[in-house]
Structure formats: structure tokens, C-alpha cells
Amino acid sequence: MTGFNISAVERETGISRDVLRMWERRYGFPVPGRDANGERVYPIDQVERLRSIKRLLDQGHRPGKIVLAAPEELASLAPRRPAPLAAAPGRPSLQPLLDLLKAHDVPGYQREMQHRLVREGLQRFVLDTVAPLTVAVGDAWESGSFEVFEEHFFAEQTSRFLRQAIGTLPENRASRPRIVLTTPPEEQHMLGLLMAEAIFELEQAHCIPLGVQMPLVEIQRAALGHQADIVGLSISSAFPTRQVLPMLEQLRALLPESVALWVGGAGIERLAAPAGVRLLPLLEDAIAAVGEWRLRPG
Amino acid sequence: MTGFNISAVERETGISRDVLRMWERRYGFPVPGRDANGERVYPIDQVERLRSIKRLLDQGHRPGKIVLAAPEELASLAPRRPAPLAAAPGRPSLQPLLDLLKAHDVPGYQREMQHRLVREGLQRFVLDTVAPLTVAVGDAWESGSFEVFEEHFFAEQTSRFLRQAIGTLPENRASRPRIVLTTPPEEQHMLGLLMAEAIFELEQAHCIPLGVQMPLVEIQRAALGHQADIVGLSISSAFPTRQVLPMLEQLRALLPESVALWVGGAGIERLAAPAGVRLLPLLEDAIAAVGEWRLRPG
DNA sequence: ATAATGTTTTGTCCTAGACAAAACAGCTGG
DNA sequence: CCAGCTGTTTTGTCTAGGACAAAACATTAT
Predict the structure, then answer these.
(1) What is the mean pLDDT of residues A80-86?
(2) Is the CB of residue A287 less than 8 Å from the CB of residue A281?
(3) A175-213 pLDDT, tens digit each
(4) What is the mean pLDDT of residues B251-272?
(5) Is the Cβ atom of B269 within 7 Å of strand D at any atom?
(6) What is the CA radius of gyration of chain A?
């Protein structure tokens, strides 16, 4: 096991090459070895530590305070954001689902989800179970009780379940609005899109799902090619905050004025909407937005 | 519309910042403007041209020959790889499916796929329809008759169809081998994974699908956490060839010896397998590999 | 035709510096 | 005690130009 070069570390940790070199200059960590060509070689334990650091950064900590902290300190740092609300009264607890996921119990998880779906109906199921569960799993990862692969596992199982549920809905083929659903490059979280699709389809909108990570010019082409009324984007909290607004402005400039741009997801909290962009911080807002769209003049 | 900065161009085109600067130095294209801070600003038409160039590069052309070519020349360049085989005798034609996709006819596409599935059975359907169709769509994109968003659309619709088909299979919960299925970072193509999952499940292996883009250390953790016998990786032709072997060696070094590493997809053609890695260039090879695994000593 | 060699092309990594935007800290005034 | 303004520090991203190994190609020898 020779170690990782700088691009491998970028891929593993999500920390860019520039930042890795900058931290080395500024803070003295990481301190990779060098190979025969003078290129950086990161040993596995430094990569692991960089992963921990990245997790804390995503929780709102700052590099200057944590890059040089000892491993024990890293483990003890609490999340720097408001603690998740305790189970809202009247809403079903998510704990059983989290336990089933942690136990890797696929049939049990699917059974419990199915149970909740038929009891609550698809709309309430999405709003009261899937959306909070997604947040809870993210929190569990941040606090270290879920591994990354367990989050992937959750996303995969839940995608399958949601897609199947959406598949049982009647098709709104000819109805309006027509909504192209996707995510921008770098954003690979699919679940937000599927939740939005379920909500929109229940409101009798026609969705054209395009999966994740569409280049902006392709979103433009897709909107034209599918004669969309609306482009719906989902942005998770993992998306780099600094890039959200420039990206939205760029996309807005590419789209024709007649096409609305709606953006949802945890990545847009506390943001001011650029002109011509509608922010939908909560899934519930999507329901209202469709109603308003139908009442628009013209 | 001010233009794109260098990272936006990297995201849009998939051409790295280093390469963009290098081309500018070496070939004199692209020639972005500069903003008030002296930073590059790429106008939209240069971004479009870079997209065309990237497509030709992926077809095997070389930068020195095409970066400076005039737009008309770019359009006229033929794919530099063996032309796709004409429809194999005895196999159903793919043209009707391609036409339905091009027409954005979702119900028609799903109906035709369903028809083929029940006629051929899942295994033959995957081998004779889905796999060649994926190649055909890729070729259609390379030749310019499909847009990127249409390829995304195809992938999304076909994923849904395949997942649903897999969902109807009986569960192989307790059976062996246990196969963790995923793709490495940068590799976002899901379809290869789903085809493999269908094939493996039909062979009564137990699959643990983790979706795409798992960091290597997370693949290691997942293999341990799920007590996998095999890690199955799918690598498409879009994955940078130079990075395949180093990545496989790195992952192989991370995994315990008792866990096999199987790799499939168009991205491994003409590659020599590193020690301890089994290459499955064709889906059919996956069937044989499961049989051999069951006969292994011990 | 295949294998071995030399040459060109190409991508990735390097150092070191600059600067704008975000985040913080401190202050003022309601 | 909190909201808003101001100055300072922190932080990420961009710049330039150079170096070099590996891949791809062209050429020669078996």
C-alpha cells in the first residue's frame, strides 16, 4: 500500500488539490511524503484524518480551528448547528426506520416504509417520513453514527421505494405545468428530486425526470426540447454554498424568460433568491407554487 | 450573460482547469477574456466548442489535431473507432426503441420495453436489449444524433424499468455469494450496475446495491460491514482510461484478500487485470464468474 | 505481420504569489 | 438584550510558467 496521490485524495475526501496544498502551506497539515518525482504521496491515516476534518467542515467548523487539532479532539467536537428537533408531536417516530437501516435489514425497511405509505398516503408519507428521515440520516452521518456507505445504502433503498410508489400514480401526460427535474453538476443527491417528483405528480403536474448532474447548457437544451414550463432543481446541503448563487444566475441567464426556475433542497436555506428564481426551501412550498403557477396571468 | 469562469467551464465540459490553461498556452484555444481581476472569462460559444471537442476526444481523436480545427471540420469528423455492428441476426432490432426515445415518448418506450421483457425473459432481455441499447445510445450521442439530455433521459427511464423488473425477483437474502455493487468516484453511470444486479440476482447471488460514486475507503468499509464475498464495480467508457488501473490497484490493496474484486463495463476493454482483480468485459462473463466462485476451493 | 525501438504529444503535478468574498469580532444605537 | 454597521482575519480560488512521465504514434528490425 504505497499511498494516495493528490488527485486520489481529492476524490476520496472531496477536498480540492488547491486546498490540500494550501493547508499544507498554512497549517502544516497534511504533510504527505514525496515519491521519486517529488510528487505528494498521502499515507492512508492522513486521508482518514482529512475525511474527519471534511465532515466537521461540512458541519460549519472552520479549518483554522480544526486542521491541527489532535484526533481525540476531532472526535469530541459537537455539530455546530441547531440540534435536530425532537420528534414533532403527532408525527411518527423515525427511530425504527433508522434502526432497520443500521441493521442493514432490507426487507424489514421496505416493509416498514410500505406500512407507513399505505397508512399515511403518498403526500404525507413524503412530507412526514421521507423528508425528515433524509435529514435524520444526514445528521446521523455528521455525528458519526452512520458511515458514508450506510447513507448511500439508505439513498439507494429509499430511491427504489419512492420510484416504485411514483410508478403507481396515474400519468399526467398531457397536463400542465411540464416540469424538467434535475440537479446541477457536482450535485449527486437524487432523493430530493424524487420527493419533488412525487409531490408534483400528486398535484397533477407532468414531470420529466433527467437524473442528476446535468451541465447547465444541457438543462437549457432539455427545457427547450421537452417544452418545459418549469425547470426544477434540487440542491442538497452538501453543495458548496459559495457556488449556489453564481450557478443559479448562470442558469437563469441561459433559460428563456418564459421558463420558470424553481429551486429546492437544504442547500438554499438562508439564501436570497436572484431575480427570476423561485426558492422552495420546504417541500410544502412546491405544492403552493404549482397552485400559483396555474393562476398566473396569461 | 457575462460568461463562465474556469471552474464553471470545467463543470460544463469535463475538461480540467489545468488542461484548459495548457491548451490556451499550446494551441491558442480557447482564448477567454479577462475580468477586472485578470481571471479568465469564457464566452458561451467557446464553451459550446469545447463541448464538441470533448466529444471528439472521447471518440479517440487527439487534441493537437482538433483543438484548432474550424467548427465545420469538427462537425464532419467521423468516430475513430470500429463502427457498431449491424443488428446481430436473430436479435431484435433496437431502432424502434431509439425512435421512441428520440420522440420523448415515455409510455411508448415503457410499453415496448415491457413487451420485450416478457417475450425474452429477464436474462436475455438484459443481455440482448438493454446492454446493446446502452451502447447504441452512447454511439448516437457520439455521432451527434442524441443530445446529452436525451442520454440522461434514457438512463433515467431505463433505470426505473430495470429496478422495477429486479423488484419482482424473489429475494436471495441468505444466499451466497454476497456482492456489494457500486462505482468508484467520478463514475456516475448507474445502468451497468443495474444490469449486473439483474444478472447476479438471476444467478441467486445476494446483491447489496450502493449506488454510484463511492470513495474507495467507503467501499472497503461497506465490504466489511455487509460481510461481502465480492465487490462488483462498474466502469463505463466515460471513465478516464489512465486512472482505471491505479484506482483498481488502490482498491485491491484496501480490501481484505478474502474479498474478491470483480470489474465490468466498457471502461475495462483492452486492459490487463492487476493481480487479484477479475475483469468481466461482457455481462455474460458475470454468469460464468458466479459459477466458478461457487466451485472455488474452501 | 509482429516486436522492439525512438520520437512526439499530452496530462498532471509542482512552486509561490495575489486577492475577493465569507466569516468573525467589536462596536454603536435602539 | 438584540439588530445593524464596520473593520479585521480567515479562507478558497485563481494566476503564471516550468518540469516530467506515460501514452500514443511513427519507424525500423526480426
Answers:
(1) 50
(2) no
(3) 899 999 999 999 999 999 999 999 999 999 999 999 999
(4) 92
(5) no
(6) 21
Distance CA A176, CA A42 (A): 53
Would the CB atoms of B12 and A185 count as touching at under 8 Å?
A: yes
Percent helix, strand, coil in chain A (nearest 5)?
55, 10, 35
Asked if strand D comes closer than 7 Å to A23 Cβ, the answer is yes
**Cα-based distances in Å from B17 to A253, B11, B14, B209:** 23, 10, 9, 33
Strand duo A178-182 + A230-234: pairing: parallel
Identify which of A251, A247, A217 has the alpha carbon closest to the alpha carbon of residue B51: A217
Average pLDDT over residues B202-210: 96
B240-249 confidence digits (pLDDT tens): 888 899 999 9
Scored b (16 or more CB within 10 A) or e, B244-280 reads beebbbbbbebbeeebbbbbbbbbbeebeebeebbbb
Q: Are residues B149 and A218, on separate chains, in Cβ contact within 8 Å? A: yes
Q: Give the bridge partners for B232, in sequence order.
A: B181, B262
CB atoms within 10 A of CB A257: 7
Chain A residues near residue B4 by CB distance under 8 angstroms: 250
Q: Is the peptide bond before B177 cis (omega within 30 degrees of 0)?
A: yes
Contact in structure between A90 and A132 (CB atoms under 8 Å): no
Question: CB neighbours (10 Å) of residue A174?
Answer: 7
pLDDT in tens, A25-51: 999 999 999 999 999 999 999 999 999
Contact B204, B173 (CB under 8 A): no
CB B296 within 8 A of CB B266: no
Strand, helix or coil at B185? coil
Helix/strand/coil (H/E/C) assignment for every residue in A1-49: CCCECHHHHHHHHCCCHHHHHHHHHHHCCCCCEECCCCCEEECHHHHHH
Q: Which amino acid residue lies closest to nucleotide C23, measuring CA to C1'?
A: A62
Residue type, B290: V
- B103-149 pLDDT, tens digit per residue, is 999 999 999 999 999 999 999 999 999 999 999 999 898 888 999 99
Crossing angle of helices A95-102/A131-142, nearest 10°?
A: 60
* Residues A244, A267 contacting (CB under 8 angstroms): yes
